User: Fold these one by one.
Assistant:
Number 1:
Amino acid sequence: MFNYEYMGLPGSPPGNNGNNSSSTVEIKCQAGNRKQTRVSKVKVLLTANPVVVQARPTEAPGNMMCPFCKTKVMTITEYKLGMLTWLIAGGLFIFGIWPCCLIPFFVGACKDVQHSCPQCNNVLHVYRRM
Ligand SMILES: [Zn+2]
């Protein structure tokens, strides 16, 4: 059992100017039973320009920034046949459940979800279940 305690981020050391500045972070490592405290210094690379990753909606319609019309829209979802659909259908087919092997093609939970923009109808994102 180890408890790692984050000691805070000190300012970048002097004489280090640039986009990527490395600074030292102290991490206090404490053993659970024994009262031993070990302080280890870890070099952390700080990036000046973090890349903003857009949160992609999964199954339900979500807010996305449309790259085509540059507006924030609530996506329209549409179920599309995906890998999981065929796998379930194939599995039912192999195990001899003939009438049921078409069920996945009608059940939305077995399909991929395609998100499209309500204004320009462009496909923004496809949520794949596999
Ligand atoms: Zn759009």
Number 2:
Amino acid sequence: MQIKFFGLVTLVFLITAALAVSGCAAAEAQEIIHLPVVDRGNAATTTPTPSPTATTTTPATEPPTATPTTTPTTTVTPTATPVTLIWPTIVLTTTASGLNSPVDLADPNDGSGRLFVVEQAGLVRIVRNGQVQPTPFLDITDRVTCCWEEGLLGIALPSNYTQKGYFYLNYTTEALGKLQTRISRFRLTTDTDIADPDSEQIVLVYDQPHGNHNGGGLAFGPDGFLYIGSGDGGSGGDPDNRGQNLGDILGKMLRIDVETGSPLTYTVPITNPFVGQARKLPEIWAYGLRNPWRYSFDRQTGDLFIADVGQNAYEEIDFQLASSAGGENYGWRITEGSHCYDPDPCDKTGLTLPIWEYGRNDGRAVTGGFVYRGAAWPALQGVYLYADYASGRIWGLRPNGSRWENRLLLETGRNISSFGQDGAGEIYVVDHAGEILRVTVP
Ligand SMILES: [Ca+2]
Ligand SMILES: [Ca+2]
């Protein structure tokens, strides 16, 4: 039964072994499924580099599950002609080791050279100059329920963190005798290397009917609002059909205002799409998500990339323009990837299908990353990096004319639980086995 529940942390070794013997083929041949926008103007700006080392494909020895879609399912108006993109080779450079099940990373961006790393059991550690500091930044293991897909799962720092002196965490707890997700605000002590576990202000709390699919990410949008990806609650196949129920907080992307004024909890932005509508929760920004474990905003364009973990067959990348008014239905459980799930056949009218998907030849649980906007590696500019937790593969995804183009960039063999981005736009890989690695171009 549990083999159907792939979320963050499930049967990894079995999966990895299975993938290793199945002759995994790179997903180079997939076509674009859906493209809501075209031409970010970043095509063909890179310096030619040697071909990526990880593009050799091996014929799959089992029926491919990610049948290429040969035509876009949504009409788009091409405004740019596809060009031959030059893709960089990437390597990972170890930044820090010795962490205990790290799952997220944030940069206070205060000139201190520190990185905050979230450990799943309930600690936030400081990495300074490549060294994990012995004293935790925060320890809330007393209230965190861990592990599997539970635990302290995400961190977000507000703009002007240094002046505000507080931050937000997303974790699971059984403090009230039942499993719940909490979004909470914590404050610094007078020591900027120590946060106060007793300073917790619970912003938002909701019940978790099952241990898996708890979402876990937190991200501030360019609008200053806090985006919370809530998983569908768990089990398998979204048995209560929460993703499509606009009266249920699970299976959604939520958008709340935690920064305007001095709210102890939050307020709902009046521009949220379902405000004032009967039997629909005003906190909902978008819906039809299964387990949006990691999502991020392109710091240059403000576009939102959501990596939604699949059920049995397809992992997907969803996309939303910065200009979106919200209300997108990303399909789950009607669809998994671009394919009918329940019911099958299904009516896809009105659904926002993924910009990319991959099947079981390439992995089992997608881990979303970031669009590279740093200065160190011009060849990576504008590339959205993401990975698969089970297979350890890292891909790049970027627009090319009216299409999205995907490329396998690196086989790592690692269980990549998350990505992180520092203040300079450099990207880090979080290895669940305990390392932080920086993405570099040799
Ligand atoms: Ca759950
Ligand atoms: Ca979907």
